[in-house]
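ugh ok fine here u go
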Amino acid sequence: YSSCFDANGGVFETLLGPEDAVISDALNHASIIDGIRLSKAKRLRYANRDMADLETQLKAAGEARRKLIVTDGVFSM
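structure:
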């Protein structure tokens, strides 16, 4: 990929299918959010730094084949 934005846009579609779930931090960078939208996985969001909400979303993901938690390294947007 020529940029991090492009990488974030392509990685989730490659890794996740319709039987998977991705649980995203509510404050993730726009490129991460866009990449998640391109995947066919079930999409869930948890409040930033709220582990109780993350646990709720993990339970809501149910019997997904894979459950991927995605958080940004530096919250810039």
